[in-house]
Amino acid sequence: MMAAGGLLAAVMAGLAHSAPSPSAKPSGPAPPVMTKNGEAWAWTQLVNGTSHSTEIRFATTEKPTGHCPTVQYSHGGLLHNPVMRKVSDPYITGGGLQQFPTTFCTVPIPDGAANALIEPTTTNALTVHPGNHQLPLPEWPVNGRPRSVAVIGDAGCEVTSSTVGSPQNQDCQKNWPFEPLSMHAAAQSRPDLVVHVGDYVYREQPEGADDATPGCDAQGQAADWACLIKDFLRPAEALLAEAPLIFARGNHEDCTPGKVGRGAEWFRYFATVPQKDNKCFTDRQTETEPAQINAGSLHFILFDSSSASDGDQPDKAQAREYAKRFDEVNALAANHQKHDYFLISHKPLWMVKRASSTAVGWTNPTLASAVRQTSKGSLAANVRLVLSGHVHLYQMLDFLNSTRPPQLTVGSSGTTLDTPPDDTKVMGQTVDGQTVQHSVSHGMHGYALLRDTGGQWHLTFHESSGQAWPLDCVLSTGPTKEFTCK
User: Fold this and answer.
1) What is the DSSP code (8-state) at residue 267?
2) Confidence of residue 94 (pLDDT cuts 50, 70, 90)
3) What is the tens place of the pLDDT at every residue in 414-444?
4) What is the pLDDT of residue 284?
């Protein structure tokens, strides 16, 4: 862990050279004078705002509550000091418990801005993460696109039994690699953008974790702020300091009463339009509409597949409804017909779980059926890639001489792994009526890295140490969508 700590220090220190002048004065009011207290977390997020695509978000447990700090950044040769807008106050349940003891604030950041930080004199928080108050902003040109995109998913520590040491539970102290993965990804791959394809907190029974701490150590706390820090924010801190993020909703972020669903966490902090209180449950947010998120000339569409059936046969009623959503996806892709679009769906559309010499078992027939039922009968031509998680392994699947986008599944960034299929028994088999050309699967913890080199996307898998594994696959730019791997 000392090596990992050194990596985090390097990531944080690497940002210091770009800090705005300390002589700049915040324009907003200072917080009430009192001893520093509490803890704050800040990150940069790409959203689907009509007037902006980048937001800085800030959640703090400082007291007194209700105060938002000032953000400082440079733009157009000038320093700017906007006060963040308060989105929500701490949420107190009927029993007086604070599920979300945070004041939550956001601020839009214009394209082309740089050198952003939380102005230290405008917050009472004793600790602000990332540790130097600095926040990454998009580094790609306004009319360009990210040079590299890291894809992570299903990263939390899986704790399904309330008994410490149960074989059902992942060893969170020794066999949960998400924090070193984040550090190595930040320090070695240096992504311009990070996409999380969903499922953030896996502590179904927090009291059973071997690293339980107050606030995330009791039945029912999986959907609370402290477990979000434990399972995601703290281990992901190096990535939060390195690049803006896009957050998809997974099936663990559900809003089903009576279950330990983490939908309330996602809607409050990570949704493109954050909500107050616990409206995930009071408003029964089942699924959200497809949303386009722009990263310059690269566009992502968030597709909420959190409730899609996982059955081996399509759910006909669901497929009809999802077909309408995929029609919306195609309409969004028509906004920039010459630009690349990546579809983010937590549950894969086409992904092989098991294979024999004669057949494959794949997921998800319901979503695949919905695509066939769209008015086009397919996804739009400029939807170049599908990014997913849900199944706990890494897999890239493409199709022979096909206009169907390849399926990239990254459900392997921390939680207990599934056994990957034998790729030699997958290639040449039929998935949803088309022949598999490449199947590249890894049953190890890691992340995917997409690099734009000369206008082409190179895809590699990196294990948690940051080491790249074969193969290096290059996505075609023509009407057929396939990888050339070597």
Assistant:
1) I
2) low
3) 999 999 999 999 999 999 999 999 999 999 9
4) 66
Whole-angstrom Cα distance, residue 395 to residue 410? 7
State the pairing for strand pair 434-442/148-152: unpaired
Q: Which is it for the CA torsion 363, 369, 370, 375, positive or negative?
A: positive
Q: How does strand 456-463 pair with strand 446-453?
A: antiparallel
* Beta bridge partners of residue 118, listed in sequence order: 71
259: pLDDT confidence band, cut at 50, 70 and 90?
A: low
Task: Calculate mean pLDDT across residues 280-295.
Answer: 84
| 407: nearest Cα among 475, 455, 453, 456 | 475
**What pLDDT is attached to residue 1?**
40
Amino acid of residue 312: D
CB 146 within 8 A of CB 192: yes
Model confidence pLDDT, tens digit, residues 28-70: 667 776 789 999 999 999 998 777 899 999 999 999 999 999 9
Nearest alpha carbon to residue 211 among 231, 185, 181: 231
Closest C-alpha to 253, from 206, 194, 309, 200: 200
**Residue 203 per-residue DSSP state:** B
CB 156 within 8 A of CB 201: yes
Asked if residue 312 lies in contact with residue 365, where contact means CB atoms within 8 angstroms, the answer is: yes
How many CB atoms are located within 10 Å of the residue 368 CB?
22
pLDDT digits (tens, 9 = 90+) for 317-334: 999 999 999 999 999 999
* 139 φ/ψ sector (left φ>0, alpha ψ -120 to 50, else beta): alpha
Residue 220 CA to residue 88 CA, distance in Å, equals: 22
Bridge partners (DSSP) listed for residue 55? 45, 108
Do you know the residue count of the chain? Answer: 486
Q: What DSSP designation does 216 have?
A: B
Containing H/E element for 433?
none
Rounded-to-integer distance, Cα 461 and Cα 151, Å? 10
Backbone torsion region of residue 102, taken as left when φ is above 0, otherwise alpha when ψ lies between -120 and 50, otherwise beta? beta
When mean pLDDT is compared across 4-8, 19-23, 123-127, 174-178, the lowest value belongs to 19-23
Within a 10 A sphere around the Cβ of 347, how many other Cβ atoms? 27
Q: What is the pLDDT of residue 444?
A: 97
Rounded Cα distance, 322 and 366, in Å: 8
Q: What three-state secondary structure class fits 44? A: strand
Pairing of strands 446-453, 148-152: antiparallel
